[in-house]
Structures are given as C-alpha cells and as structure tokens.
Amino acid sequence: MTALHAPPAAHEVLARCTALVRPALREAVDRLHPWMAEMAAYSFGWCEVGGTPTTTPGGKGVRQALAVLGARAAGADARTAIPAAVAVELVHTFSLLHDDIMDGDATRRRRPAVWKAYGTGPAVLAGDALFALAVETLATVPRGARAVRLLSTALTDLVRGQADDLLFTGRPHTGPDRVTTEEYRAMAEAKTGALLGCACALGAALGGADEETTDALDRVGRLLGIAFQLVDDVLGIWGDPTVTGKPAGGDLREGKKTYPVLAALTSPAARALPDLLNSPERTQEAAALIEAAGGRTAALSEARAHTAAVRTLLTRTPLATPAVEDLLTVLDYLVGRDL
C-alpha cells in the first residue's frame, strides 16, 4: 500500500509532512556514494535501475510524519523535526533492504526488491550506508547526542524483535516450546513499534521536549506499532494482493507465527491447523480454518485494544491539540487499512 490509498484526511496529513521532509531526504541521499545513492533512490521509488528518474510510488511516509507530528505535539515548529524525520526514514529503508534479504522477498512495492535488482551484496551495503547516514544526520544537529541515544535504543530493540521473529519460524505450533501471544506482543513492539516510537520521540526531542513528554510519545509509537503489526498480520493472510503488493497467504507459506495463527491454535476448533500449516500448498485451507477458529477476529480485537490505549495515553499527556488530532487521524488510517 501507499499513502495514495489513505482516506483524504490521513492522506493530507501524510502528504503535508512528507512534502516538508522530502527536500532534506533527497539532499541526504545525494551525499552517499553514487552507487549507494542510486540504490537508495530506487528503494524510495525515485528512479529505475540505472538511475532513470521515475514516479513509482514509494512508502506511506508514516515514520517521517510521526517525527514531524511529535515535534508539533511538543509545541515546537515542525521544521525542527526534519533531521529526525530524515533519520527514521533512512533507518526504516535500511531495515526493509535487509528484511527482504532475510525473508527472501523478491518484490517490494510491486517492483523487484533491491537485492533482486542489484544483488544481495550491494543491497546489504546500501542498507549499511543508509544506517550510517541516519546516524550522521542526527549527530550534526543541536540536541543531536540525545537524538542518537534515542535512535540507538530503538535500533537495539528493532534488531532484537527481528531476531525473535526469525526464531519464531523454527519453533513448533504446539507444545511447551510454542510461541505465545505474550511473546508475540513483545516481538511486535520491538520489531515494529520501536522505530515508530522513536520517530515520535525524536521529533519531540529535537523540539526541546522534556523526558516525560518524549517517553510518552515513544510509548504512543510502540503501542501503535503493535496495532500496526496486528493489522499487517491480517492483511498478510487475507489481504488483497493488488492492494497490499504481497502474495496472498505469503506469511503462511513462510511459516510465520503471526497473531491470527497463534490465537487460532489455542482453539479446539483448530486441531487440524498444525498439519495444514506444515503444508505450504494448502494455505487457502489454513486461512479458512484460522478464520473459523477465531484467529482473524482475535487479531483485530487486539489491534483495537492497543489503539484504545494509544488514545488514552494521548489524552492524558499535555500535548498540542492540533498535532494530537493529526496523530489520531494517522492512527485510524493505519489500523483500518482495507480491512
């Protein structure tokens, strides 16, 4: 999905934030080695292989928008968040380049993934370059030391969450070594929520917010990340490939321990599910049984619970009202994507 699929209100918020950040993001990418810059531009949808300019849609720009909204929520000028927005967008893209290699995903946003287009080694190197550029971007601005600490903490959590997600695949569906829903929540908060929380907190930190405010915004992003991942899990099984850009049932074929699967496995109605999950050619049957056993309903209910927690936290934290309204607009979009 891209931001173009967002409802008008959410699309306006995302578009306004990305328009503010885009010039600085392009300037940062242009500082890279030309080959690295081309791969980065390709991943952002700015060019084709070889560097020919294109208008291919890129990502939704959620993380850079959260950085801008974090600054505004703390009462600062949105422009103070631009380095934070650039840094989190660079880190997010770095993580996608490496994720696609680890997961063996050959496509990203309906185009060949960077590792398929340029090779595995170059894609790893491009990811490393983006990570280094993100740190440099923060280190050279006022309050940069605090910002780098926030980013490094988020990256440590992100790596931990990614490691758990990979390890979950090799664990059994049943028995004492099965993945629990509690473990899943911790994984999702780290893998997906850490960078969303960092985005919100970084924007506020560069805007001069105190630690209590940045901690609250970090928690907002982490809770949002869990809800986002839950919805992503649902779309990974039942989403329309023409909308999601992912093959139908891909998560099931890869053996991912997503929340709908974990929830369904606790139901007596899903006794046949482990065998279906071990048969990649039977993903449609597995998806039907997961839904019948309540996995889809449980995942969406859990997402709504985390959404409610975000709303509560935002109302209890002293923040600028217009920015909070925009944060809620983005929240509603992210947890209601084409479901």
Commentary on this structure:
The chain is an all-alpha fold and 339 residues long. The protein has 16 helices and 2 strands. It has helices at 8-30, 34-44, 62-73, 82-103, 114-118, 120-139, 144-169, 181-206, 211-238, 241-244, 250-253, 259-265, 273-277, 283-292, 295-316, 321-334, and strands spanning 107-108, 111-112. Strand 1 and strand 2 (111-112) form a beta hairpin. Helix 1 crosses helix 3, helix 1 (8-30) crosses helix 4 (82-103) and helix 4 (82-103) packs antiparallel against helix 8 (181-206). The longest helix is centred in the middle third of the chain and has 28 residues, at 211-238. The mean pLDDT is 93.
Euclidean distance between termini CA atoms = 13 Å
Shape: globular
Cα Rg = 20 Å
Number of helices: 16
Q: Residue ranges: pLDDT <50 for 5 or more in a row?
A: none
Helix share, percent: over 70%
Structural class: mainly alpha
Strand coverage percent: under 5%
Count of strand segments = 2
Name the average pLDDT: 93
Strand order of the largest sheet: 1-2
Please provide the ordered H/E string of secondary-structure elements: HHHHEEHHHHHHHHHHHH
Tell me about the biggest sheet?
2 strands, antiparallel
